[in-house]
Amino acid sequence: MGGPHGHKLHFHGHSPVHRAPAHLKILALLGFVLVVVATPREWYWAFAAYFAVLAVVVAISRVPPTYLLKRMVVEIPFVVFALLLPFVAHGPQTEVLGVSVSQSGLLAAWGLLVKGTLGVLASLTLAATTEPQELLAGLERLRLPNLLVQIMGFMIRYLDVVTSEMHRMKVARESRGFTARNPRHWPVLAKSAGALFIRSYERGERVHLAMLSRGYTGRMPRQ
Prior knowledge:
The protein is mainly alpha-helical and about 220 residues long. Helices cover about 70% and strands about 5% of the residues. The strands form two sheets. Strands 1-2 form a two-stranded antiparallel sheet. Strand 1 and strand 2 form a beta hairpin. Helix 2 crosses helix 7, helix 3 (about 45-60) packs parallel to helix 6 and helix 7 (about 130-140) runs antiparallel to helix 8 (about 145-175).
């Protein structure tokens, strides 16, 4: 049986996709994204084939589709932007459901939506089938600069810490009767964001000093 495990994006399982080497999955994702981006927007059959390939991979991985769909909310800003394109773009007009929209904007919106959705879905599939530490090891095997791998490792490790601290600050504000309802409350939110940044920066400094005191030489040992 599979289930959420480890990082929030990872879905624990033992499928062939889960067992595949991380560096090969990273290369497959990069290749897939490059092919999708390079595909002309008018090649509708190609995008249907890409979705079919992803559907097969998801089926083999045994990751529930709903698990991935819930996490695709990250794409919402791109969806909103794409929906606006037909109304702001110039050029010949056409009618869709009785509304006049730009033909070029409509095509651009389609391209942005389909390519963005494919990229996000493929990335989520990689994250759902690969543990964060395996991803870092895969990046190292692909000869990504060690310093970048370390930065990504710390980002993954402390993301939950910062998120939890942000939630505690939100609870503290609400316990004092504060609720952000209009732009007049933005200064309070800005101060909270500034305080969170300072705390995160200070935590990073303390962690760095602790690493140096333990003989850190520029490379992190793998557990």
